[in-house]
Every structure is written in structure tokens, then in C-alpha cells.
Amino acid sequence: MKNPKADVLLIDFIDDSELSNRVYAIKSLVKRKVLDTLPLLVALVSTKEFEMKALYEKKEIFSALAKLGGDSLVPEFEKHLKTRWSLFKKIHVDELGLCAAMALQRLGSPAAIIALQGGGQSRNKVIREACEKALGVLGAA
Fold first, then answer.
1. d(CA 30, CA 53)
2. In whole angstroms, how far apart are CA 57 and each of 26, 91, 94, 111?
3. Of the candidates 58, 124, 118, 125, which has an alpha carbon nearest to the alpha carbon of residue 135?
């Protein structure tokens, strides 16, 4: 049963202070295929607040993006596989790359495979290995 009020309440929980509530809300919104969630999650990924989230939550958000956005978000995921060299390596860059590779693996489409192949050429070892592993799982290595 689809209830718009429930969808609104679940969307509100994306900003909850409790990690378990946020993750449950995201999973529920994906299960209910609430596409209104998509722009909110895309915007969330580009915030400083997102960098501070636990890796588990980041993975859940990227998984939700893959399930709701499909191939339309391949360019967005691909951006996270392309990193610039930095004297001060930031862990969140690696985490975003890992999450993007996981999301692209989940999609498994030709466009996602091309993006993973590009990520397999990354200078960032963590991202490169994540893309290579994803390609191996997809049988496209």
C-alpha cells in the first residue's frame, strides 16, 4: 500500500540524528521506489556533512542512488572515480570512490562497466582496486 504521508515521514528521517533511523528510512524509501528521494540523496552526497558520515551509511546511500537512479547516475558515480593528486590525501576521497565502484557494480550495465574500466586506470590505488574487483565480479575484467 502506497501512502504519500508515509513517504514524507520517511524522507524526514533521512536527517535524523540516529544512524539506524537514517539507514532504515533510506532502505524503506528504496523498497517503496520513492523517486522524490533521488534529488535529496544526490544533493546530500556533495555536502561536507556527507564526508563525516560512517562508511556504512555512505554505502547505503550510494546503493539507494544506484537502485533509484539507474544508468542516469553513472556520470555522477564516475566523477567519484576520478581523483586529482593531492599532497594531503583525504580518506573521504577513497570512501567515495569505493562507494561509487560498488554502486556501478550493482548497476552492472554497459555504461557502468565502461565507467568501472575508466576507474581501473585511476592513479588512486584504492579506487583502482575497487574498480578491478567490481569488474571481476561482473565478469568484465
1. 19
2. 10, 15, 15, 25
3. 118
Here the cell at position 97 is 570512490
Q: Which ranges in the chain belong to alpha helices (H)?
A: 4-12, 19-31, 37-45, 48-51, 55-69, 74-79, 91-107, 110-119, 125-138
Q: How far apart are CA 95 and CA 90, in angstroms?
A: 9
- Contact status, residue 140 vs residue 116, Cβ threshold 8 Å: yes
The pTM assigned to this predicted structure is 0.92
pLDDT digits (tens, 9 = 90+) for 104-122: 999 999 999 999 999 999 9
Separation between Cα atoms, residue 14 and residue 86, nearest integer Å? 32
Angle at 95 between CA 140 and CA 87, to 5 degrees: 110
Cell numbers given for 124: 588512486
- Tens-digit pLDDT profile for residues 28-69: 999 999 999 999 999 999 999 998 999 999 999 999 999 999
Q: Three cell numbers at 134?
A: 567490481
